[in-house]
Write a structure and sequence with these properties.
Strand order of the largest sheet: 11-12-13-14-15-1-2-3-8-16
Strand content: 25-35%
Helix content: 25-40%
Largest sheet: 10 strands, mixed
Number of strands: 16
Order of helices and strands: HHHHHEEEHEEEEEEEHHHHEEEEEE
Structural class: alpha+beta
Length: 392
């Protein structure tokens, strides 16, 4: 299903009446009969940010969302063709000059429209196979120990969640390396002698009333070897209070209101006495995104998560953006105390592309390369760690 169909279903747009169709055909035939040669109609990209004279390639790329915006504004109910039949003052036989149509900017889609379109698409995705496999890239930024520049660490994580009772879940984790986060950071890194390892001393951390000291950590710039970790499939995901299986996750509510109420109880249990000071909407946004991106939830539960996000106050549309892997998608965001969380998605398929969290000047992202159901089996040729805990 494409985006336009999804939005039309959601809003139940009335069909075009026979009178409108007949009138349009009559005016179209009259216009062509009175025009010696058809005027060349350029591809138009009708958005607030882009003028009509931009190149055709970009216009084609955004054509789906232009059509979506037109449908949402009710313009799909009638089509008007602008044709000029007057002739210029040039020599006899000169082709009549066509005037450019007057184009009004189309309002950017709201966050609710983007998320509801994704929900409709997600509800119709297939969910059949022995494993749910998810391949993702995680990126984290961290200031180097001397504070002179910022590093970005990327990790490849492949997750295989078995749907057979008693079978384990497998995590295949690989460090992809560390490099300066931006060109400016690279300049500072070169000025510092281009080091390839960084040691961070341990620190004392206080979390939920408890203090503990973290050990020192040394980071290397070069990529590491893949590491395989086995986890029992009946382990509970604390964010949703259910094991990571399709059967268990199918017990989650399938309505946005029901899912919101259920997740509030899970969040309250997680935070305990500190729940009164928690930004519940921010927690719901994070948990709803987690259901969409990170767990093998059934299509109707994923759709409910999208619709729950659409109901949260403060969620805003960012328009078309580029994700950390260079793909384009529609984005929505929600500010939090130190920054914001941005969800980027392909609303035509209901597939999430990435979630980017900005904390002050740094960012953390998770980009999904693929997430699907399959009867294939994981390649466990990487060295096995033998731990019961998933890789960090």
């Amino acid at each position: 299903m494409d985006d336009l169909t999804a939005i039309r279903e959601l809003l139940s747009a009335p069909p075009v009446s026979p009178e409108v169709v007949a009138d349009g055909r009559t005016r179209l035939a009259t216009a062509f009969a009175s025009t010696p040669k058809p005027a060349n109609l350029r591809s138009l990209e009708m958005t607030e940010e882009t003028p009509v004279h931009q190149d055709k390639r970009r216009a084609m790329r955004t054509a789906r969302w232009t059509a979506l915006g037109v449908g949402l504004l009710g313009a799909a109910a009638a089509v008007t063709l602008v044709v000029t039949s007057g002739t210029s003052a040039g020599a006899p036989g000169t082709r009549p000059a066509a005037q450019a149509p007057s184009v009004q900017p189309i309002k950017k889609l709201s966050a609710q429209q983007v998320l509801l379109a994704a929900a409709t698409s997600a509800a119709k995705t297939p969910a059949d196979g022995a494993y749910w496999v998810r391949n993702s890239v995680t990126g984290k930024q961290r200031v180097e120990p001397g504070g002179k520049y910022t590093l970005e660490m990327t990790t490849l994580l492949e997750t295989w969640v078995s749907q057979v009772p008693g079978q384990p879940t497998w995590f295949i984790n690989q460090n992809l390396g560390i490099k300066p986060a931006t060109p400016q950071d690279e300049e500072a890194w070169r000025a510092a002698g281009s080091p390839h390892s960084w040691t961070y001393p341990g620190t004392t951390v206080t979390k939920r009333g408890k203090s503990f000291k973290t050990p020192s950590v040394t980071l290397q710039s070069k990529p590491g070897e893949p590491v395989t970790t086995r986890v029992d499939s009946d382990k509970t995901d604390s964010s949703v209070g259910k094991p990571m299986t399709r059967a268990a996750l199918s017990e989650l509510p399938t309505t946005p209101d029901g899912l919101r109420d259920y997740l509030k109880t899970v969040i309250a249990k997680q935070w305990g006495a500190e729940y009164a000071h928690v930004d519940v909407n921010a927690e719901l946004y994070q948990t709803g995104t987690h259901i969409i991106m990170d767990v093998p939830a059934p299509p109707n539960v994923r759709a409910a998560a999208f619709r729950m996000l659409a109901s949260l106050p403060g969620v805003k549309a960012e328009g078309e953006v580029t994700d950390p892997l260079g793909r384009t998608g529609q984005a929505v965001s929600l500010p939090h105390s130190n920054g914001e969380g941005r969800l980027i998605m392909n609303t035509a398929t209901g597939e999430p592309l990435a979630f980017v969290t900005t904390i002050k000047e740094a960012r953390v992202f998770v980009a999904i390369k693929k997430a699907r159901w399959t009867d294939d089996k994981p390649d466990l040729s990487a060295s096995q760690r033998g731990s019961d805990d998933p890789p960090a």
